[in-house]
Amino acid sequence: MGRYPIYAWALRPLDDVLISNRTKVICHDMLAISLAWFVSVFARFNFEIPPDAYLHAATIAFPFVLLIQGIIAQYFGLYKGLWRFASLPDLWNIIRAAALGSVSIALALFVYNRLERIPRSIIILYPVFLIFLLGGPRLTYRVLKDHSLSLRNISGGQRVIVIGAGTGGEMIVRDMLRDGSYIPVGLVDDDPSLLKARIHGIAVLGPIANLPSIARRYSVDSLIIAVPSANNAQMRYIVETCEQTALPFRTLPRIQDIVSGKVGLQEIREVSIDDLLGRDKVELDWRSIQSALVGKAVLVTGGGGSIGSELCRQAARLGASKVIVFDHSEFNLYKIERELREKFPNLTLHCSLGDVCDRGALDQLFSAYAPRLVFHAAAYKHVPILESQSRTAVRNNVLGTHEVINAAERHRCENVVFISSDKAVKPSSIMGATKRFAELMCESKNGESTTRYITVRFGNVLGSAGSVVPLFKRQIRNGGPVTVTHPEATRFFMTIPEACQLILQASAIGQGGEIFVLEMGASINIGYLAEQMIRLSGREPGVDIAIVYTGLRPGEKLHEQLFHREENLTPTRHEKLMLAAHTKIDSRRIGELFEELKLACEAFDENLIRRLLFEALPELTEAHDAVSKKTNILTFTGNK
User: Fold this and answer.
1) Which range marks the domain in which residue 32 is found?
2) Residue 278 located in a structural domain
3) CA angle, residues 164, 166, 167, in degrees to nearest 5
4) Among 74-88, 153-167, 408-422, 511-525, which is the least confidently predicted range?
5) End-to-end CA distance of the chain
6) Which 3 state secondary structure label does DSSP give 370?
7) How high is the pLDDT of residue 602?
8) Which pLDDT score, from 0 to 100, does residue 8 have?
9) What CATH number did the domain enclosing 218 receive?
């Protein structure tokens, strides 16, 4: 227990019989009440032995004093606080308890025997002595532990329960003890071996399931989740338990996001939806990834977008000799250029504004900077918008991909990694069809030159420009309603850094011609996603903010898939990367259809473009018709 004030020192042997802190505090306070009463009696008679009649009357009154003062002390919460964190609010509670106790005792004794043989001065002296005897040891203990008597240190900080008694919890508690702005009342953890353990003197109070009752018992102000290694299921359970307390809660970043490996108060942040949908830490073969990147010039098309910009960061971090960023958005290009120059001042960086359909611009770019590795992330991705603008979708996603992969071949690039989408699997939309056609082009192109063409397919990424997450955030910020397409709609989600790291892994192990499918985990119900985001904002779904179901939009599916049934996924040497088996393709016919699509784009013939896509992808007709029927039928309004 560390250093003790004189009264607590008398209780030190009780540690050996595992008596709780609460019991020790009650025993101390009962002793303090007793001393305060009889010291005030002796003080009344100048610390001489009082006459027998007065001493007898004080002794008769003593049970009233002990019972009444004990009840009032309990009411003011004097047994909840930890001496290690005695503060000015605790002292104020002691003053109030002593004053109210003195008045209550006087009234009770007046009713009992009209205060016979009880001098009125005792009623005045008693609370003074009691305040010193209750407050003195508490503050003395705090001073001895902190080696200072600073008002900043003993003023009332936030009373906090730390969730997680592992390394993260230990570091956070240590920071709190040093900082003083938070008061760690205790920890909770589901590890049975940690129950009743102490971390820097702070007790593990029970399992996480008991958090609501523990928070009430200890008058807690807020909660801190210190489990950076938690997976999404564990994080959901913790957050749902925190929500039952109706207290604000914050968290540490996930362990893969903590670059230094150290955690502290400065890392604490609000819980985000990424924490609930994030998955187990991805173990990558960083040696092979780095060897594929180090010393090489890397070109990222769409480098200002969500995925493209993260690929630029990862390439710079892993030792690429040169990063070439190509994007058609002036503002996005400006943002990523400024960020990369600030974070990687020694990086050779070239940023070029242009269109992937511009063959001359691409040839100039490849000639000037000689990229060895290309990540083709540039694409239009908004399903409902592209559904009515098939020419624009084909021009950018098909013709643009054709120009990139051919420029890479002409300039003897080593690898091209095409970033595809789960929308390409049995596409129900024009956007998905363009992505699938681009996959087929890369597949048919491989083997015709020394350049290797690799496709990586995955679902939605959290926080990207086209994700529902920014939309939900904006709707919640505006007070709702939050719009969801369908109560049964599900999507696959992955964080942007995780998706990009797996893309890099695929580029390192790919030999050319493969379609890698990222293991996305379980699909997430969009309605659940909306509800959790509302709760994380501190409001209640359907009460504070409504959820409105609007029906599937043109081209949207109820449930996405990551691979065709006939593709028969097979594992790779990396558990998060699967390999889709090749489907039979007619390379000659793909080339013919491409030329026809190109002519149709030049003629602005939207109907012909759609017919050619349906011809190229027979599975598109059935899926597109099925989704169109659902879109016409399903329109929901109101709460789930």
Assistant:
1) 6-148
2) no
3) 125
4) 74-88
5) 53
6) coil
7) 93
8) 37
9) 3.40.50.720
